[in-house]
Amino acid sequence: MTNIKLIFTGGTIASVATKNGILPSLSEEKPMLLGRFERDYSDLKKEVQFECTFLMNKLSENMELSDWEQILQYLKSNSFDKFDGIIIAYGTDTLGFFANMLSVFENDLPPVYIVSSDKVLSDNSANGAENFACAVNEIMNGKTEHGVFVPYRNGDGKMTVHNGYQITQSGILSNDFYSLDSNPPEHKSLKKFSGFKKGVMLLNSYVGMDLSVIDFSNISTVIVTAYHGGTTNEKELIDLVERSSIKVLLASVNYNENENKYASTVRLQNHGVKIIYKKTVETAYAEELCSLI
After folding, report:
1. Strand 2-10 to strand 221-225: parallel, antiparallel, or no bridges (unpaired)?
2. Same domain, residue pair 35 and 139
3. Does one domain contain both 282 and 171?
4. How does pLDDT run across 179-201, given as a tens digit for each residue?
5. 187 lies in the same domain as 125
6. How many domains does the chain have?
7. What is the mean pLDDT of residues 2-14?
8. Domain with 216 in it
9. Are 249 and 274 in contact (CB under 8 A)?
């Protein structure tokens, strides 16, 4: 028998459609996810045993860093030695950020699978039950001792098990998820976790960017997403570095440190902007949040 710890945090996979929109379900007695699993995967159900914890019940777009801290504190303060793996039910809107953050601590955990759903589970076309069954199968097969993974079936019907540190946020006008060939984060000890670094801001590059209109008084670090060439508006970032003591990062550059860079990127680096190489923006953000550990 495979023993799995199942942690509910909310998201569409634990929500219902109402006249006021999609809302988290208030019932914990019989989670819809397990109901769908028992109905559609009865043979698989005979081989697995779940222990459920309802940690919170929020749509992931409303997640705060304090919610992530609560999840990490729960993982830190409990033993999972008797379990073959952990499944965390989570929402799709911030799935990429959550998976990358959790990957920072993966070495201290049994294999963790994050499952989400593109639609509420009462919709038979939803992928949530299939994503969940894939996670159960992966844990039963025992392919790894550690790691954070995201099984997800895209609209084309293809199921992919993403590495947590390589999955990116789903794009606008899309319900699909993709991974990039990127490097893992610097791993931290979950035992030493006491909270995230405060004041980390993530900004997109865009034509007309004007950082002078932003109040950075409570900001410790600014991460600017680079254009595909590893570039951004150099004047705006140089001005920010010269007028403040804020740590400025440019993420992420799709080549190695020793390869040729655009002159604008070299000038940024010479002015103290830290260049992030071969990592997703989500990984760069997670690393900075955990940089004080």
Report:
1. unpaired
2. yes
3. no
4. 999 999 999 999 999 999 999 99
5. yes
6. 2
7. 96
8. 200-289
9. yes
Alpha carbon distance 26, 263 (integer Å): 55
205 and 186 both lie in a single domain:
no
Q: Are residues 204 and 148 in the same domain?
A: no
Same domain, 177 and 242: no
Mean pLDDT across the chain, nearest whole number?
Answer: 95
Predicted pLDDT of residue 26: 67
Shared-domain flag, residues 75 and 6: yes
pLDDT per position as a tens digit, 20-69 = 999 888 665 678 999 999 999 988 888 999 999 999 999 999 999 999 99
Residue 265 has pLDDT above 90, yes or no: yes
User: 166 and 78: one domain?
Assistant: yes
CA dihedral of residues 128, 133, 134, 139 (deg, nearest 10): 130
**pTM score of the predicted model:** 0.96
3-class DSSP assignment, residue 66 = helix
Q: Say which residues have a Cβ less than 8 Å from residue 260's Cβ, sequence separation at least 6.
A: none
CB burial of residue 191 (10 Å; 0-12, 13-18, 19+): exposed
Number of CB atoms found within 10 A of residue 293's CB = 17
